[in-house]
Amino acid sequence: MVMVKGIDARGMQHCETTALGVLLRHEGIDLSEPMLFGLGSGLSFVYWDSKAMGFPFLGGRVKPFELTRNLAAALGLELLVEETTSPRKAWRNVAGPLDAGRPVGLQLDSYHLDYFSTEVHFGGHIVAMYGYDEQDAYLVDTDQQGGAVSTGLAGLARARAARGPMTARHRSFTLTVPGGPASPRDRVIPAIRTCADAFLNPPIANLGHRGIEKTAGQVPKWLQRSDDPREDLSRTAVLMERAGTGGALFRTLYRDFLAECAQLIDSGHLRTGHALYAEAATLWTQVAALVAAAGESGDARNLVQAGSVLHDLSRIEREAMQALSLL
C-alpha cells in the first residue's frame, strides 16, 4: 500500500476546488474554497443547446481544468500536466508522484467511480488521489460524495480512459511551490478583472451576460423543448443548485469570494460587486426552484416567471462585473 503522508482529506462543495485544496494544503497553502474559485477566475455562464442534445445545458463556471490553470498562474505555482492515450503510461504518471510522497489531481468520468452517488457521465470531474493498494485507489472528492473515498483500480482506469464531452486523455497533474507563493491579496484584483472582462465581452451570445439574457428568452419554452419535462427540468434544477456548484450556479461561491476580498481591500467597486452578487445568488436559487416547480406541475407560468428573473439577473450580473472591472 502507498499512502501520501499528511493529507488533509477535506471535501468541499465543488470537485475542482476540492482537488486543488488537497494539493495546495500539502504544499503548505490553505485557502478557502471561495478564494480558490475566485483566484482561478472560475465564474462564467454558458447556455448550450443543439439538435443532438436531449435538453439545454446551463453552466456557471469556466470549462474544466481552466480554473486550475488560472489558479496556478495567479499564485506562481508550477503545474505539471500529464496526458497520454496509453493506460500503462497513465498509471505510471500517477504512481510516480504518489510513490514520491506527492498527491495527484485526476480528470475523469465520474460515471465509473464506485462511490459516486449519481450514475451520469461527466468527463470533466476532478479528484485528488493520495494512495493506492493492489485493489483500490484512495481519493478525495466533494463533501457530498463523501470526502475521503476509495474506488476500485479497474473502475478508476475506465474513468480515466473514457472518451466523450469534456473528457481528457488520462489527464493527471501535480502542483508545487517553486519559491514563496504569490500573496493572494496581490492577485485578487487581476483575477477579478480577468473574470469580469470575459463575462462582459463574450465572443458569442451563449456566454456571459449575453448568455443569461438568451436563457431568459428560452426558458419559458422549456416545456415544449423537452420530451420528459418532469425529468429534464428537475435534473436541471438540481444541477444548478446542488451538483457541486456550491449553490446558485456557483454564484454563492463568488459572492463569498468577493466578501473575503473586501476584508483585504478597501474598495467601493468591490463592495458594489459583492452586494450585487449577493442579490444574484438569491435570484439564481429562486430560478432553480421555479424550474423544479415547472417540472413537477407542468405549469408554464413558473417558467415565464423564471425568464423574468433571468432577465433581471443578466442586468444585475452585468452591473456587478462592470463595477468589478474598474478595480
Q: Would you give an account of this structure?
A:
The chain is α+β, with helices and mostly antiparallel strands and 327 residues long. It folds into 2 domains: 2-30 and 78-176, Cathepsin B, Chain A; 184-324, Four Helix Bundle (Hemerythrin (Met), subunit A) (Up-down Bundle), CATH 1.20.120. The protein has 12 helices and 9 strands. The protein has helices at residues 15-26, 33-39, 66-75, 87-99, 153-161, 184-200, 208-218, 222-225, 229-241, 251-264, 268-297, 300-324, and strands at residues 2-3, 43-48, 57-61, 78-82, 104-108, 125-132, 136-140, 148-152, 172-176. Strands 1, 4, 5, 6, 7, 8 and 9 form a 7-stranded antiparallel beta sheet that branches. It has a two-stranded antiparallel ribbon with strand order 2-3. A hairpin with a 3-residue loop joins strand 6 and strand 7 (136-140). Helix 6 crosses helix 12 and helix 10 runs antiparallel to helix 11.
